[in-house]
Amino acid sequence: MRIVSVIIPVFNGEKTVARAIDSALEQPFDGAVEVVVVNDGSTDDTRSVIEQYRERIKIIEQENQGPAAARNAGVRAAHGDYLAFLDADDKWLPDRFATPVSVLDGDARCVLVYSDAVKVDTAGKVLAVSCIPARQSHAPTMGDLMGEVWNILPSTVIVRRSTYLATGGFSEDFATAHPQCEDSLFWLNVRELGEFHFIPQPTALYTAPSSFAEYLARRRLFCDSEKDCADRCIRNFVLLHEKIRRRYGDRAHRVLDEIRRSQQNMLISIGLIAMSGGNRRPARQMYRKALAIDPFCAKTWVRFAWTVVPAPVGRSFARILPRRVARAVSGTVHA
User: Residue 215's pLDDT band (boundaries 50, 70, 90)?
Assistant: First the structure.
């Protein structure tokens, strides 16, 4: 009998993990579905929620180590030939397994199947009917993955267990943060071993922050302070850059450039968050680091200058600027 093992890592997911588990258990499938939930050191009521499913799922408890370590722990406890990953704040749509499993059964060259997803906010409101850019609406070649970071969402992936084991699983070297970057490296490692198959129809609801407040809350879920968030994120981008550079060299120059741009954008986002809280010095530090990556970005120079202008002067200017412009330079919106 074919077994699909569903790996659900969860950290402080008391509000969403039941929905994720239900969406896995309710999947129609002519084989067996094994659900493994890894409680990654949650400090909220997650344990009580998942305990209600103990007769139907396998539960792993561990200290907080991040999603990579949680997924790896789940795989070690699983038995399926096929592995499906589901984040605790996402939800699968009906008939999740039929097409991916048939593809893997019928094509020995295919090692991983993934799909599009519907983007929703934390209340379930649809933000976008697709998460895949039009230029990426096909399975990537290795050359494609060398050209840019491919938007493959873990909650849409099913991979052969043998392939996962051959790669060594998700790298646990990355710091727990948002983003952690471990999945981008994993897709590259998997693609070396065989072909991908892309399903254009969404198979999951992907939860994303729809507001600045939600974005801030998600970042602080893993960190003690904005400085801690910044340090962890920078470390992850630098580590991803270094691992790809060492493995692929000049062949990966385009994707390496994109990773540097992503690092720059993350620094700017952290700077804006700091400015929104009135913390001008850490914001200035973030912008300075962003300028070290791209010293010719005029917008970053404006943001940096905004941290030097006396606060009363800055507030006065912000009130007469369009809301979008005021937020872009100061991280706040003034009435």
Answer: low
Query: Residue 261: phi, psi to the nearest 5?
Result: -65, -40
Over residues 139-175, the pLDDT tens digits come to: 999 999 999 999 999 999 999 999 999 999 999 998 7
Which amino acid, 165?
Answer: L
**CA-based torsion, 285, 287, 293, 294: positive or negative:** negative
Domains of the chain: 3-207 (3.90.550.10), 223-330 (1.25.40)
Query: Coil, strand or helix: which one is 288?
Result: helix
Please report the pLDDT score of residue 311 as a whole number.
66
Q: Are 209 and 218 in contact (CB under 8 A)?
A: yes
Which SS3 state, helix, strand or coil, does residue 92 take?
A: strand
Phi, psi of 26 (to 5 degrees): -90, 5
Answer yes or no: are the C-beta atoms of 4 and 102 closer than 8 Å.
Answer: no
Question: Could you tell me what percent of the chain has a pLDDT over 90?
Answer: 64
Interaxial angle between packed helices 226-248 and 253-276, expressed in degrees from 0 to 180 and rounded to the nearest 10: 180
Asked whether the whole model's pTM tops 0.70, one would answer: yes
Taking CA atoms, 16 is separated from 10, 92, 241, 245, in Å, by 9, 12, 32, 37
Q: How far is Cα 199 from Cα 131, in angstroms, rounded to an integer?
A: 12
Q: Which residue has the tokens 């809280």?
A: 277
DSSP 251-274: GGHHHHHHHHHHHHHHHHHHHHHH
Amino acid (one-letter) located at 331: G
- For residue 47, give the amino acid letter: R
* Contacts with 152 (C-beta within 8 Å, 6 or more apart), sequence order: 114, 183, 187
Question: According to the model, what pLDDT value does residue 116 have?
Answer: 98
- Say if residues 51 and 64 touch (Cβ distance below 8 Å): no
330 vs 199 pLDDT, higher one: 199
What pLDDT is stored for residue 319 in this prediction? 59
Terminal Cα distance for the chain, rounded: 62
Q: What angle do CA 106, 85, 8 make, to 5 degrees?
A: 145
